[in-house]
Design a protein that fits this description.
The protein is mostly helical. The protein contains eleven helices and four strands, in the order H-E-H-H-H-E-E-H-H-H-E-H-H-H-H. Helix 1 crosses helix 8.
């Protein structure tokens, strides 16, 4: 049990390290903040205005990343198609290094369009970033292996790959986006990631990577750490233990909501997790 708890703290430390690769230098380091997580709901209403731009950025980044992989390959470590499939599974996950391009984007109102702007620094993944992430997930959809196959074959130029992904396969660029309503509720301002920001998405992802979603170990850890189901750690407590408790609690809510969504029922209680469970399945969301 102690070993498991230590392992988890290690996972959290690794997740935190993943979460803060780039620092905004112009502002002084702030007190640790807890950012992201299931509480941040994707602004799905923005997706129709940005999906084509997101697709073109996805195409650009997928292309660039696979080129980098090909360059790093050699006779003893050839580039394998499975590696590209793996890459495509992670490229639309903003907290992962492969999906970091998503956390560098900002949505900016420009007259009657919503422009997707590439920023110089990585931001915390708030509602607009989650919308970009969802749009990218929907574009990839069930096609990660097809996309990987095309990139692995290397027979398309970058422009041809872009057109194939955005016009043929996903079709998101076939029609012009509708004009942006004047009364669009502004999204949250782009928030550069600061040293010490604790990304709950990365923590939960780290737990899930280690098979701790829905596992008995989590319940045991709750018990050993003395977290009663109804007990929330103090909001201001940013110790690793409190972060762990929060991440585990959120993972549990997520699992419960997903199970309820799968059973077609609306769970009593946590509305945020229910909303999240609906956004998580790209197949259940209309483009
Ligand atoms: C081949 O690539 C691998 C992984 O990138 C690297 O560790 C290794 O040193 C390379 N070998 C040669 C002969 O360049």
């Amino acid at each position: 049990m102690r070993a498991a708890a230590l392992l988890l703290l290690g996972v959290l430390a690794a997740a935190a390290a993943v979460a803060v690769p780039a620092l905004a230098t112009e502002t002084p380091a702030k007190k640790r903040r807890v950012v992201g997580g299931p509480g941040v709901v994707a602004r799905k209403e923005d997706i129709p205005y940005i999906k084509c731009q997101v697709c073109e950025l996805l195409a650009k980044n997928a292309w660039k990343q696979v080129k980098g992989m090909a360059k790093a390959a050699n006779a003893s470590h050839p580039l394998k198609e499975e590696k590209i499939i793996e890459r495509m599974e992670n490229i639309a996950v903003a907290w992962r290094p492969e999906g970091e391009w998503i956390a560098r984007l900002d949505l900016v109102e420009e007259g009657d369009r919503l422009a997707v702007k590439e920023m110089d620094v990585v931001g915390n993944c708030l509602g607009e970033c989650k919308a970009v992430q969802l749009a990218a997930e929907q574009i990839i959809g069930e096609h990660d292996t097809d996309i990987a196959e095309v990139l692995f074959a290397g027979r398309k130029t970058r422009a041809q790959f872009n057109n194939w992904l955005c016009y043929e396969l996903s079709g998101v660029c076939r029609t012009k986006p509708p004009p942006l309503p004047r009364d669009r509720m502004p999204g949250p301002a782009f928030e550069p990631r600061q040293e010490g920001d604790q990304n709950v998405d990365a923590m939960l992802g780290g737990l899930a990577d280690h098979g701790l979603h829905g596992s008995k170990l989590r319940d045991q850890l709750f018990e050993k750490l003395g977290v009663a189901p109804e007990q929330e750690p103090d909001e201001d407590d940013t110790s690793p233990e409190a972060m762990l408790k929060r991440a585990m609690k959120q993972a549990q809510l997520e699992d419960e909501a997903k199970a309820a969504a799968a059973a077609g029922e609306k769970p009593t209680g946590d509305q945020v997790s229910w909303e999240l469970a609906k956004t998580i399945d790209p197949e259940k969301t209309e483009l």
